[in-house]
Amino acid sequence: MSAHILVVDDEPDLEALVLQKFRRQIRDGAISFLFAHDGVEALAALKTNADVDLVVTDINMPRMDGLSLLQKLQESEGGISAIIVSAYGDMANIRTAMNRGAFDFVTKPIDFVDLETTIAKTIRHIEFLKDARERQAEAERAHASLSRYFSPNLAQRLASDSAAVELAGQRREIATLFTDIASFTALVETLEPSVLGMLLNEYLSGMTDIVFAHDGTVAKIVGDALHVLFGAPGEQPDHAARAVACALDLDEFAQPFRERWNKKGVPLGVTRIGVHAGPALVGNFGGSRFFDYTAYGDTINTAARLEAANKELGSSICIGPGTAAQLDPATLRRIGTLTLRGQSRPVGVFTPATLGSD
Fold it and tell me: Taking the CA of residue 248 as centre, how many other CA atoms within 13 Å lie in the half-sphere pointing to its CB?
C-alpha cells in the first residue's frame, strides 16, 4: 500500500522537515505527503484529493483548529484516520481529539522517530480497515448473486464463509425435482409479451419462494421450468422428504394459479412435477466467468423423465423409487410402473397419498 498523508500545521518549517525525515519512504513510493496550514485548507485539499488515507494535524491553528477539523472528518463519509499533534501535557485537548475519532497522537516538539512509528502503526490499521471493507463488499456482492439460486439462509452462509460449503464438483446423495407447465411453448406464441411477462414473473416468483422456504437450491430456470436440488450444496439428511414436501407445496400453488389465469382467458396448462433421489455430480460448472451451480447424472435424468411421465400416468407429482425408499410408505400411493434408464426391470412410481388422480 502507498499511503497518502495530509499534514495540517501552521509552522512554516514543518513541511521541509517532514520531507527530509521521510525522504527514503517518499523515494520508495511508500508514502506521499500533502500539506495545509489550517483546517480550512485541509478540507479544501481533501475535496480535490480523494485518495488521502491519513491526516496528521496540529490542534492550535488559525481559522479552523485541529479539533474542529476532526469533528468535520468524523461527520464525513470517508472515515479518514487521523493523528493529532499537541503540546506535551495538553491532555484535555488530546482526550477531546481521541473522542472525536483520532486514532493516535504525538506531542510537540515532534520526535520524528515517534512520528514515523505512529504513522506506520496507523497505516497498518488503515490497511486492516480497507481489507475488512473489501471483504464485506465482496460478501454483499456474493450474497446478491447467490440469492438468485439459494434460500436466504444458505446464501448468507455461502457469502459470509466460502469454506462453509464446498462448491467444487463432488459426488453426493441428493434429491431433485423438475417442474414444467404442459403445452407452455405453444401458449407463448399466442400471448402478448406484456401478458406473458406478468404471468411468468408471478409464477416463477411464487414457485421459487416455495423452493427457498424448503431450503432448496434453484439450479436452473428455463422458461417456465424449474430444476431444484436438495442436499446440495449444504448437507440435508432429509433431502428426500424435503423434496416431496416442496413438490406438494408447489402443486398447491400451481393449480389455483392455473385456474385463476384460465378464468382470465389464458389456457395455462397444468404444472407437472418429477421427484427423484440418488447420487449425482454437483458443483459450480460455469467456468471462470459464470456461476452455474448444477447437477449431473442418472438421478437428474430420471427426475426429468418422471416429470414427463405425469402426462401418461394422469398425475401432477411423480415420485421415483429412490425417493420412495427414504419415506414412510403410508405417505405415498403407487400410480404406475416405469422402466428407468440403467435398470432392466420396471419399477414402481408413486405420488403423495394426499393427492388424487387428475
Answer: 14
Over residues 39-75, the pLDDT tens digits come to 999 999 989 988 888 999 998 888 998 888 888 888 8
- The three cell numbers locating residue 165: 460449503
Q: What's the pLDDT tens digit per position in 113-131? A: 888 898 888 888 888 878 7
Domain contains 171: yes
Average confidence (pLDDT) over 77-92? 78
Q: Count of CB atoms within 10 A of residue 125's CB? A: 14
Domain boundary pick from 144, 179, 214: 144
Burial grade of 233 (CB within 10 A; 0-12, 13-18, 19 or more): buried
* Angstrom distance (rounded) from CA 274 to CA 178: 5
Residue bearing cell 420412495: 324
- Residues in the chain, total: 358
- The CA–CA distances, whole Å, from 260 to 29, 67, 207 equal 69, 67, 16
Return the CA Rg of the chain: 32
Q: Taking Cα atoms as reference points, which of 241, 218, 236 lies closest to residue 322?
A: 241
Beta strands in the chain (DSSP E): 3-8, 31-36, 54-58, 81-87, 104-108, 170-181, 217-222, 225-230, 271-284, 293-296, 317-319, 332-338, 347-352
Domain that holds residue 113: 3-144
| pTM of full prediction above 0.85 | no
Question: Final residue of a domain: which of 93, 120, 144?
Answer: 144
